[in-house]
Structure formats: C-alpha cells, structure tokens
Description:
Blueprint: H1 17-24, E1 29-31, E2 36-38, E3 45-49, H2 53-64, E4 68-72, E5 83-84, E6 93-95, E7 99-100, H3 104-112, E8 118-119, E9 128-131, E10 134-137, H4 161-166, H5 190-196, H6 201-207, H7 221-233, E11 239-241, H8 248-254, E12 261-262, E13 267-272, E14 277-281, E15 286-289, E16 291-294, H9 298-301, E17 305-307, H10 312-320, E18 326-333, H11 337-341, E19 347-349, E20 355-360, E21 366-374, H12 376-382, H13 386-400, E22 408-415, H14 433-436, E23 448-450, H15 461-479
Parallel strand pairs: 3-4, 3-16, 4-12, 9-19, 13-17, 16-23
Antiparallel strand pairs: 1-2, 5-6, 7-11, 8-11, 9-10, 13-14, 14-15, 18-21, 18-22, 19-20, 20-21
Helix pairs in contact: 1-15, 2-15, 5-7
Bound molecules: flavin-adenine dinucleotide (FAD).
Residues 7-9, 49-55, 72-75, 80-82, 95-98, 266-267, 295-297, 300, 304, 326, 416, 421-422, 425-426, 452-453, 460-462, 464-465 line the site of flavin-adenine dinucleotide (FAD).
Amino acid sequence: MSQASDRSMAPGAPxxxxxxxxxxxxxxxxxxxxxxxxxxxxGGSVVIVGAGLSGISTALLLEERGIAVTLVEARDxxxxxxxxxxxVVGKPDAxxxxxxxxxxxxxxxxxxxxxxxxxxxxxxxSELEYVNGQNVIAAxxxxxAANKLVGAEREILPGLxxxxxxxxxxxxxxxHAWTSPKHADLDIxxxxxxxxxxxxxxxxxxxxxxxxNNDLSTTSAxxxxxxxxxxxxxxxxxxxxxxxxxxxxxxxxxTAIKGPIHKGSPVTKISSGQNGVExxxxxxxxxxxxxCVITVPFSVLRGITVDPPFQGAQKEAVEQIPYTAITQYFxxxxxxxxxxxxxxxxxxxxTPIERIFPQRDPDGRLMSLTCWxxxxxxxxxxxxxxxDQIAFVKAELARIRPSTKDNVEVARxxxxxxxxxxxxxxxxxxxxxxxxxxxxxxxxxxxLHFAGEHTAFTSPGMEGAMESAERVADEVLARL
Length: 480
Ligand SMILES: Cc1cc2nc3c(=O)[nH]c(=O)nc-3n(C[C@H](O)[C@H](O)[C@H](O)COP(=O)(O)OP(=O)(O)OC[C@H]3O[C@@H](n4cnc5c(N)ncnc54)[C@H](O)[C@@H]3O)c2cc1C
C-alpha cells in the first residue's frame, strides 16, 4: 500500500500553441523556456495583477515578445500561494509543497532560468493511521480491528479511498473532459457519486476527512474524477523539490523580469476603457496599460471593483466558485517522540486535526511537522482565538499520541481561508459548476484577461498556473 496522505490537489483553457504561432510569424526568436519559436510582437503594454507563479510566468512570456509589463502585487513578497515558511525550522512549504515530476512547463522554465529543482530525496517509509480510536501502522491496516470498511475497500488506506472509487470505470477521455457538457451527468455531489460506486457508510465518513475540499456533498464529482483521469494518464511519476523550499522557484524566475514589480500594493479597482485599462491600488497609485491580466483567485477578485462589471456565467463564477479552506499548524518537536513510541511521524487521523506531515532536512533528519487540516474542521478552528487553536491542536495530538505531550510547540499558524490575498487554498467546484461555469471562467472580459490555477483545465496547482500563463500570453499577443 502506498502512503495515503496525498497533499497534491485536484485542479486547468486549452493551451492553443497554434494561436501563438499564428501571432508569431516573421523573425524567428527562440523562447528559451518554452522551446518553441516566435517573433516579437509590435509592442504594447500589459499590467499584471498578482506576482504568483502565473503572474510571473505571464510577465516572462510577454517580455519575450517585447511587451512592456508592470506587475502589481499586494503582498510584500512574491510567489503567492507558493510559500515556504522560512522562519520555521526545516523550512516547510505551506503552499505548493508537492511538485510532480510530470510538471513539464514548470520544470522547463526552472531549468532555463536556473531555478533549483531536484528529485525529492526523503520519502516517509511508513504511515500511522489513527482511526476509530486506535493507532495502526499502514501495513497492518487491512487486517486491523480499527478498519470498519467493507469488502475490497478494506485493503485501501483511508486517504486513498477517493482515488480508489473515482478511478473505477473512469469515463473521462482526457484532461478537458471534466468540463465538457457531455459529462454533465457526473456534475453531481461527490458523496452521491461515491455511494453509487459502492462506497460503504464508513468509507464515506473517512473520505470526508482530509478530503482536499470543503465537503464531499458540496463538491462536484468531476473535481475528483479529473484528478483520477490525471493520475491514470500521467506518464511521468515521481516528485521534485527545490532545495531550501519551493518559494525559491518564483523568487528566481522573478529575477529575470525586466519590468517593475510593485510589491505591497493591493489592487482595489480595475477599469477597462475603450483605449486601455487602469488599475488602482489601495494607496491611490494607478497603473495604465493596453491590457490587464488578472491572476488573483476569484475568491479575492470578488472583493475588487471591476468596471464594467462582469456579466452572466462569468459573473456567477467570480462571485460563487468556492475555495478549499486549509489551516496549518507548524509544529516543532522538543524531542524525538517518534523514537520514543516507535511509530511513524507521518499520520492520517479521523480526528479534527486530520493529518501530520514531517519535514526533513537534506540528511533525512526530522526538523518540524505540519498539522494539515481542511474543510469544516479548518473553518471551525479559524473561528477560535489563536491561543485556543494551539491548545486544541496540542491536546488532541497528545490524546491520540501520548508521546507528543509537552513535546511539541506550535511555531506558526497559516490559515489560507483567512489570508486576505488567497481567501482559500485553491478553486473547488460546487455540483453543477464544473460543466456550466468552469468553461467560461477564464474568458477575456473587455480588455481584461485572466490567468491563475483556477483558469487552467488540464493541469493542477503550480503546473495549472503555468498552463494558464501560456494561454493568457497567447490571448493578449493575438490582440496586440
Ligand atoms: C495549502 C496549499 C497547498 C497546495 N498544495 C499544492 C501542491 O502540493 N502542489 C501544487 O502543484 N500546487 C499546490 N497548491 C496550489 C499552488 O500553490 C497554486 O495553484 C499556485 O501557486 C497558484 O499560482 P497562481 O499564480 O495561480 O495564484 P497565486 O499564487 O495566488 O498568485 C496570485 C497573486 O495575486 C496576489 N494578490 C491577491 N490579491 C491581490 C490584490 N488585491 N492586488 C494585487 N495582488 C493581489 C497574491 O498575493 C498572489 O501573489 C497548494 C496551495 C495551497 C494554498
């Protein structure tokens, strides 16, 4: 059995290279990180809102074609949802910890611009399941009394159950199929779909814990099926990492951008007029350009004034697409409690503290642990004062694993739902939204264009951000 604590997430517009090549024509110019050729466009200017991975990549692509780019970023740092906790021992990644060896676009640009990415070195060799009041080593799960699953489910670790059921008789043909009207009959609540697939009540209970979404009942089955399709069709397996943390990747890429990056500048208004766009920041500063690329999550965009206002299905998507709530507690051990109780530090639990991921240094030494909670449990904890959250997490951990009592400190808390510039970890889809709203989410609106993981179709997470950058650069170039 493989490890169940999968932090990779499900989440991709067709990347139309032909459009780009059509725009290209003329003098051949080698684009070092895409490995394709094009020509400089006749000039023009673009303001990009957000210096996360999609904003940085869009800037690099547009500058390659001679477009003047200005980036406007709310935070004092770049990288957005790729976020290494540099002040926590072991430098765990809060956002974007899992970098797949299949992330072709990201690996290519990283190589071309010397951003450090290497194969992941340290893997956990075992996992502890705390289920129905008992601790069970993963290898003993199938035969354990704590395992109340039924039939073939019994062989599957709790964290792998969604993948097990979503992968059965999978009808999605390719990476785009999950948003096709053809599959609207699967745009139903995920719990209902899993029940139809034969999941027992206990399996449904376990699948609703640490599910990478807010709740199975409010998530489209297509969201999980898309992930299953990707797992089925991915040719390259394995994990990569950036020494010193994944934030080093966007930081390095950003050094190649020639245009200004205005950090600490939250955008409050974006206007599209007949001849150009105007972006206004909270400070009153304004930036004008021919076009604007908006990369902020829709959860954040709904709080920014857009003029003229969105219409129709796109308006609905901006206002309603949910984002997964994730709250993380970064734990620093005072002593090696895992040596004391001889149990694996990696944990999957059916308690409100959900999952624990160890962070190791290059020599394999365990430095810190991330307690990773999503959905309803995260929302509940977010509503409590920080001291109460810390006390709760420590007490719960000590209850299920006594060796941690008085042996861990909480160094940091990161709530993605409460973060004003993310308002959630990643886009999710209510039943009905995958086939009705997803296809129009990234459509241009007036002189405004959209990038970001939420506008990607075929790739999830960081690679989705890259996919969206390629698509939006093509779109803008076609108009300049
Ligand atoms: C907890 C967590 C776990 C994840 N795990 C993985 C994983 O394992 N693997 C994976 O591939 N992906 C993972 N992801 C997703 C991945 O991090 C994102 O998909 C990717 O980084 C998104 O890049 P982006 O450019 O689309 O968005 P962002 O990184 O969010 O960039 C948008 C930028 O806009 C800025 N912004 C917001 N509001 C404003 C404003 N008003 N004015 C100006 N700027 C603004 C933000 O600060 C941000 O820098 C995870 C994310 C989270 C949060």
